[in-house]
Automatic annotation (TrEMBL):
<keyword id="KW-0067">ATP-binding</keyword>
<keyword id="KW-0436">Ligase</keyword>
<feature type="domain" description="Methionyl/Valyl/Leucyl/Isoleucyl-tRNA synthetase anticodon-binding">
    <location>
        <begin position="703"/>
        <end position="830"/>
    </location>
</feature>
<comment type="similarity">
    <text>Belongs to the class-I aminoacyl-tRNA synthetase family.</text>
</comment>
<keyword id="KW-0030">Aminoacyl-tRNA synthetase</keyword>
<feature type="coiled-coil region">
    <location>
        <begin position="807"/>
        <end position="834"/>
    </location>
</feature>
<dbReference type="InterPro" id="IPR013155">
    <property type="entry name" value="M/V/L/I-tRNA-synth_anticd-bd"/>
</dbReference>
<dbReference type="GO" id="GO:0002161">
    <property type="term" value="F:aminoacyl-tRNA deacylase activity"/>
</dbReference>
<dbReference type="Pfam" id="PF00133">
    <property type="entry name" value="tRNA-synt_1"/>
</dbReference>
<dbReference type="InterPro" id="IPR009008">
    <property type="entry name" value="Val/Leu/Ile-tRNA-synth_edit"/>
</dbReference>
<protein>
    <recommendedName>
        <fullName>Leucine--tRNA ligase</fullName>
        <ecNumber>6.1.1.4</ecNumber>
    </recommendedName>
</protein>
<dbReference type="InterPro" id="IPR002300">
    <property type="entry name" value="aa-tRNA-synth_Ia"/>
</dbReference>
<feature type="domain" description="Aminoacyl-tRNA synthetase class Ia">
    <location>
        <begin position="13"/>
        <end position="662"/>
    </location>
</feature>
<dbReference type="InterPro" id="IPR014729">
    <property type="entry name" value="Rossmann-like_a/b/a_fold"/>
</dbReference>
<dbReference type="InterPro" id="IPR009080">
    <property type="entry name" value="tRNAsynth_Ia_anticodon-bd"/>
</dbReference>
<keyword id="KW-0175">Coiled coil</keyword>
<dbReference type="GO" id="GO:0004823">
    <property type="term" value="F:leucine-tRNA ligase activity"/>
</dbReference>
Length: 955
RNA sequence: GCGGGGGUGGCUGAGCCAGGCCAAAAGCGGCGGACUUAAGAUCCGCUCCCGUAGGGGUUCGUGGGUUCGAAUCCCAUCCCCCGCACCA
């Protein structure tokens, strides 16, 4: 016997696996073409930082499945690679080089990067390499992941780029790529597009599409931005900031009047803008502008609340439907002096009445007025105004119906009509469009970030033929859990065009325009195919990897004129492994990566090569809170493995929740897993040291019971693992069976040869069941026990000859009896006074009389049908004589039968109840430290079949 | 707003799809006991309320309903979490 020393034993196995190349998988020789290839993938990690315990689970769940299939006899490929595409790594390097404190702290404190190593991290690939080698690869090795390491690559490798080049040239040729304008975040200081990572403020900002209502002032267009274009008929006036700076400019050949900041925005949104002259807002105050829809002339009033930084800096006022406008108008009216100072006739302003343009239930004629008055808001600076406004906007959007003056649109609900109304007026030239963020956005450099429209290449994910194929792919694959299937379909329908390029970043250049880089979610859609050939591609010069090469590889020899022999060789490897059996991935990736994965496979490959299954994974928490490397709230696999050992880490990660459920790393719980594994180890080594006889001796009831329970465990674990239910499976193999063992230890004398034999058989099977979860421990013990590691032994199968329902039912009766006796004891102990029977000297167990068992047999035969049972029973004259007693018994038994299946009743009917208790008498006697007397009741006693009467007797 | 998931005993968390062996698994925590010089580990019992005999009562977010019977099915309602795009 030796102590459990996970670090030492795990190190031995790691070394052994590496030396043997244990998990390197190759297509089987032609001779065993019948074998079963299983191809498992997981999203390749993005090494912009280190690996934490959350990542560990992402890769361990597929490892368990891979190990399981291997024991089932499959040829299993589980590869890994590294995703470096895009800007995060570059951004991280930039922040390191500029000495940003947060970044340095993450590197030094969270990821323990040594001071003299920091300089190696100053190039993007140097940075990536560090985290790949020292964190991810090390962590994966330490965890014992059964990865084929020959196939690793990065997405910045030349050969990978050739592969992506092939993919994008092919898609372009098929018309699935399209060029167009697209809004991006653009830093006005750095004069380039920026990503969310580059932002100081406004990470949550959304793109908003404003409609510009083209009010006219003479020949000048005064565009006013709104999110509610349908309110145009309710405009009573306009507002402008009299003190802000505005520009009269030539815009696409017209004269426009807009705020100064709007000039650059309009330019960035694809307009030709030539500023002609700068004025203050006062220039327009008191003027009239013409509503392009109604032709009405409305007055422009001064207002300090107008933000010249937002949109065009001139806004229209709809006091009937906007609480803000309503209050602003009231306040303007109240301040005659101010109006007069701007040369406006106060009477004219007083005469302005709100013009309602839609009706909405519960808000009266002038909804904004009602809303403001109901909420008792009197000032435009009241903080409660925002909520009132939001509520009114919402209600009007969903239930407001347009008034008659809207002609063809009259009577329609805003929600349904807004888009059509806007488009119609855009068509006619009354409206225009401008984009703006929902909040201020500031770059890390301090510059303002605005919306810019840039020439971009799109993937046409809304192409009808394409989406149809993708839906087909969804319907053919296995979605685990099944309730995620709808999400894929939903995402496919919801996706629009996807801009697939960026201005900078690591990765593959767009083949026909090398200014651009293919972005990360677009260069990671079919790389699983690359795994199948990655290690062999290295033999081929990069320049040979052209279009024809990959066409031959993926589409066969007839696809190209003069197929490359090497490509055709690789094609065999690809065809051997494909399709991907299961892809394990996080649930938040359904809405992009996983659906892209389906779309690209559906387009580029035949249905036979489409993804066979996707397993969704939940998120990880740490002590109930989200992990965050920037806050240092992470556990690194390194640290955890050092403290607990890899098997404990794995077992915790797999056992605490099913893969698709969120899980929570709690030190307390991990500690307890470690304790449990230690106990398992101790018991196992005890059996290994004293394994009992080679040949099967005569077994006791308890032995046969345990072996029967083992068969059920095998069935449960196998079924659970087939569905990737790692929690259910490990729970059954480990904890649930521990319960059975606990009973067995109470019940059986373990020094008997038959017990040693039984325990040994049980241990061997359990080690095989546990090997996918705790490979180090299970392989070690299995090898000590049998001479072979568990992973080289076949997966256990249920042995029907060992399944014994009768023994299990009998044993359940004994357990039930123990429970009942304890129940009575408990009840007696509750008494205020001492009751001597609570600690009995003798326990009398009376089994139901023979005729009662006869009735039970009838119930078992007929089922829970009181009438049918009664008429059958009453046909027996002896029973008829007993009258009421029979009636009562049948009622009781019917209730008993209702809760049980027919099979169980039959099994019970076949048992000799008294014999069961007599066999267990010695055991019961030991348990309760009392004499146990088993007898059949005298007539008239209260026992019921399988519910003996019990009497505790003190001396 | 759109889409998805969820509310179970001190905590974590099964059960719900296929209603009844469900006062509700397992783990953790707590209490008592055995073992031990002691601690730890291990083992046994208890851990919603009441009860001197294996029983009874009230529970599974809330309110209704279906049913002989509901944690499980249906309806309504409240609350919580996650994703929503050019970000990997």
């Amino acid at each position: 016997m030796s102590d459990y020393d996970p670090q030492a034993l795990e190190a031995r196995w790691r070394e052994r696996w590496a030396e043997e190349g244990r998990y390197e998988a190759d297509p089987a020789e032609a001779a065993d073409a019948a074998d079963d290839p299983t191809f498992i993938t997981v999203p390749y990690p993005y090494p912009s930082g280190g690996m934490h315990i959350g990542h560990a689970r992402t890769y361990t769940v597929p490892d368990v499945y891979a190990r399981y299939r291997r024991q089932q006899g499959d040829n299993v490929l589980f590869p890994i690679a590294w995703h470096v595409t895009g800007t995060p790594i570059i951004g991280a390097v930039e922040r390191l080089k500029t000495g940003e404190a947060d970044q340095l702290s993450v590197l030094r404190d969270t990821y323990n990067v040594a001071e003299d190593t920091l300089k190696d991290l100053e190039t993007p690939m140097g940075y990536a390499r560090h985290f790949i080698e020292n964190h991810y690869k090390k962590g994966m090795h330490d965890l014992g992941l059964s990865i084929d390491w020959r196939r690793e690559f990065t997405t910045n490798d030349d050969r990978y780029s050739k592969f992506i080049t092939w993919q994008y040239e092919t898609l372009k040729e098929r018309g699935l790529l399209e060029k167009g304008l697209h809004p991006v975040k653009y830093c006005t200081n750095e004069q380039q597009p920026v990503t969310t990572h580059d932002l100081l403020e406004g990470e949550e900002a959304e793109f908003q599409e404003y409609t510009l209502i083209r009010f006219g002032h003479g020949d000048t267009v005064v565009p006013m931005a709104t999110l509610r274009p349908e309110t145009v008929r309710g405009v009573t006036n306009a507002y402008i900031d009299p003190d802000a700076s505005y520009v009269i400019a030539d815009v696409d050949g017209e004269e426009w009047f807009v705020s100064a900041p709007a000039v650059e925005k309009l330019q960035l949104q694809g307009r030709e803008v030539t500023p002609k002259r700068t004025v203050t807002g006062e220039h327009l105050v008191g003027q009239r502008v013409e509503n392009p829809v109604t032709g009405d002339e409305v007055l422009v009033l001064p207002a300090a609340f107008v933000d010249a930084e937002n949109a065009t800096g001139v806004v229209m006022s709809v006091p009937a439907h906007s609480p803000d406008d309503y209050l602003a108008l009231q306040e303007a009216t109240a301040d005659h002096d101010r109006l007069s100072a701007y040369g406006i006739d106060p009477d004219e302003v007083d005469a302005i009445d709100p013009v309602p343009i839609l009706s909405v239930e519960g808000y009266g004629e002038i909804p904004a007025k009602t809303a403001v008055e109901d909420a008792e808001i009197e000032s435009s600076t009241d903080p409660a105004l925002e909520a009132v406004t939001r509520e009114l906007y919402n209600t009007e959007f969903h239930t407001g119906r347009l008034n008659d003056e809207y002609g063809e649109h009259a009577g329609e609900v805003v929600e349904d009509v807004r888009g059509r109304f806007r488009d119609a007026h855009r068509e006619s030239g009354a409206f225009d469009t401008m984009r703006e963020f929902s909040e201020a956005v500031v770059c890390r450099c301090g510059g303002d970030v605005v919306v810019s429209e840039q020439d971009t290449w799109f993937l046409r994910y809304n192409d009808e033929a394409w989406t149809a194929k993708a839906h087909d792919a969804v319907s053919r694959m296995e979605a685990i859990p099944e309730n995620t299937r709808g999400e894929y379909d939903h995402t496919i329908d919801w996706l629009n065009e996807w801009p697939c390029i960026r201005n900078y970043g690591l990765g593959t250049r767009l083949p026909w325009d090398d200014e651009f880089v293919i972005e990360p979610l677009s260069d990671s859609t079919i790389y699983m195919a690359y795994y199948t050939i990655a290690h062999r591609l290295d033999e081929i010069p990069v320049e040979d990897l052209d279009r024809d090469f990959f066409d031959a590889l993926f589409y066969g020899e007839s696809a190209v004129e003069d197929p490359d022999e090497r490509a055709l060789q690789l094609r065999k490897e690809w065809q051997y492994w494909y399709p991907v059996t299961y892809r394990f991935s996080a649930n938040d990736l359904i809405s992009n990566h996983l659906t892209f994965y389906l779309l690209h496979h559906a387009e580029l490959f035949d249905p036979d090569e489409w993804p066979a299954g996707i397993v969704i994974m939940g998120m990880g928490l740490l002590e109930g809170e989200k992990m965050s490397s920037s806050k240092g709230h992470v556990v690194l696999p390194d640290t955890a493995i050092e403290e607990y050992g890899a098997d404990t880490v794995r077992f915790f990660l797999l056992n605490s929740a099913e893969p698709w459920q969120d899980y929570d790393w709690r030190t307390e719980q991990v500690d307890s897993v470690r304790t449990q594994l230690e106990r398992f180890w101790t018991r196992a080594t005890d059996i290994i040291d004293d394994p009992g006889p080679e040949d099967r001796p005569a077994l006791s009831t308890a032995d046969r019971w345990l072996l029967s329970r083992l068969q059920r465990t095998v069935a449960d674990v196998t079924e659970a693992l087939d569905g990737s239910e790692t929690r259910t499976a490990s729970q059954a193999a480990f904890y649930d069976f521990e319960e059975d063992l606990r009973w067995y230890r109470r019940r059986a004398d373990r020094s008997r040869p038959a017990a040693r034999w039984t325990l040994r058989a049980v241990l061997e099977t359990r080690l095989r069941l546990l090997a996918p979860f705790v490979p180090f421990l299970a392989n070690e013990l299995h090898e000590r026990l049998t001479g072979t590691p568990a992973e080289d032994a076949p997966w256990p199968e249920v042995d029907d000859a060992v399944l014994d329902g009768g023994v299990e039912a009998a044993e359940a009766q004994v357990e039930r009896l123990v429970d009942d006796i304890q129940g009575i004891q408990q009840s007696l102990r509750n008494a205020d006074e001492d009751v001597p029977e609570a600690d009995p000297d003798q326990i009398r167990v009376r089994v139901a009389a023979g005729w009662k068992h006869g009735v039970f047999d009838t119930v078992a035969e007929i089922g829970a049908d009181q009438g049918a049972v009664m008429s059958q029973v009453m046909s027996d004259p002896d029973l008829r004589e007993r009258g009421n007693a029979v009636n009562d018994l049948v009622s009781e038994l019917i209730e008993f039968a209702r809760a049980r299946g027919g099979g169980e009743l039959d099994t019970l009917a076949g048992l000799d109840e008294a014999a069961i208790y007599r066999d267990a008498a010695d055991f019961l006697s030991d348990e309760f430290n009392a004499t146990v007397v088993v007898e059949v009741e005298a007539d008239g006693d209260s026992a019921v079949p399988f519910r003996p009467s019990i009497q505790l007797e003190a001396a």
